[in-house]
Amino acid sequence: MEIPERRQAKRLRVNLPVTFHHLGDERQHAETVAKDISTTGLRMNTQTFMQPQTNLLIRLRFPEVNKVIEAAGRVAWSQRISFSDQYQAGLHFNEINPVFRKWLEEYILINEALPR
Fold this sequence. Notes:
The protein is 13% helix and 50% strand. It contains 1 helix and 6 strands; from the N terminus they run E-E-E-E-E-E-H. It starts with 11 loop residues before the first strand and ends with a helix. Residues 1-5 have low confidence and may be disordered.
């Protein structure tokens, strides 16, 4: 039985550096890697379980084009990676500058057409 796709936006597999912190607590931040992105959110690796509904501020870096995008988001889900002591979390963007969103949409369209 095939599970219907619920995502509203196309996802692109990536390995992009991400810095994030809990909103209201800029002192404690962490760095990780985004594993896929869309115009509505991202999936990233984490060292610890992240409680769903946690609000984060993220900085997503695109080193190949020297671009940084900032967005506020909410943890939609978090789970342990099988056979690992790491976790993954899905983040839904609550606030993202429309210019960043448009740039991200174009980045995804261009890069999904490239051979992997």
